[in-house]
Specification:
The chain is α/β, with parallel strands linked by helices and about 220 residues long. It folds into two domains: about 1-115, Arc Repressor Mutant, subunit A (Orthogonal Bundle), CATH 1.10.10.10; about 130-215, NAD(P)-binding Rossmann-like Domain (Rossmann fold). The protein contains seven helices and eight strands, in the order ααααββαβαββββαβ. It has helices at about 15-20, 30-40, 50-55, 60-70, 90-130, 140-150, 195-205, and strands at about 75-80, 85-90, 135, 155-160, 170, 175, 190, 215. The strands form three sheets. A four-stranded parallel sheet has the order 4-3-7-8, with helices on both faces. Strands 1-2 form a two-stranded antiparallel ribbon. A two-stranded antiparallel sheet has the order 5-6. Strand 3, helix 6 and strand 4 form a beta-alpha-beta unit. It starts with 16 loop residues before the first helix and ends with a strand.
């Protein structure tokens, strides 16, 4: 079993965690606002296009949020040479960012307690069913959390399958394509993404995976 620090904090927000876990809601606009404020505080000379790329949201949405935040008095704008602008957080903006940060930390703490309980319970069920070695299907944020809590069990992760990220590093593993399913060193495959679980199950069955070996969260 690998020695991994279970308690470290992964700063992520899953797109569907509210619907999936039934936890208290933090408005998506507030999350975008907090991330935008953080990026601008880190680099106040970033263009809107650069902010769009770093935050992985559309350029139009960045423009809308910035206009709204300027109108609310959270930012001041200064025009720079070559038609660039700088955004400066005002005292009101800093206060708003502080409040959103506190709210986000409460929100994230609740989420991690919920996801830990869910994952640990799922792994306990798998151990009771004598599952000793598993694959992950999907290399996203859920997989990262599942990997961490898997270290609390006697179950071994033997590989991770994600065609879209084939060849990427995942902790000490390298993400593999569907050919990984052909090896007989695993007892079950855990679907570690939440986008469309039914679609993923159907896809795995089409690829020849026994439905009794597919485990979902």
């Amino acid at each position: 079993m690998n020695n991994v620090a279970i308690g470290y904090f992964i700063p992520i927000v899953l797109r569907k965690q509210n619907q999936y876990l039934g936890m208290a809601h933090m408005d998506n606009q507030d999350i975008h606002t907090l991330r935008l404020m953080g990026e601008i505080e880190r680099d106040d000379s970033s263009s809107q296009r650069e902010l769009s790329q770093r935050l992985n949201i559309s350029l139009g949405l960045v423009n809308t949020f910035l206009k709204r935040l300027v109108n609310k008095g959270y930012f001041k704008v200064k025009t720079m040479p070559r038609n660039r602008v700088k955004y400066f957080l005002t005292p009101e903006g800093l206060a708003r960012k502080s409040r959103l940060t506190v709210e986000y930390l409460h929100y994230s703490t609740r989420f991690y307690k919920e996801i830990k309980q869910l994952l640990v319970g799922k792994f306990e069920d798998m151990e009771e069913n004598r599952i000793g070695a598993i694959l992950f299907f999907g290399a996203g944020e859920v997989a990262e959390l599942a990997y961490l809590y898997l270290q609390l069990t006697n179950i071994d992760l033997v590989g991770i399958v994600d065609e879209g990220k084939n060849g990427n590093d995942f902790f000490e593993f390298e993400t593999e394509g569907l050919d990984r399913l052909d090896r007989d060193d695993w007892d079950a495959i855990l679907v570690t993404r939440l986008d469309d679980t039914s679609r993923d199950i159907e896809y795995l069955i089409e690829k020849g995976v026994d439905s009794t070996k597919i485990v979902t969260l």
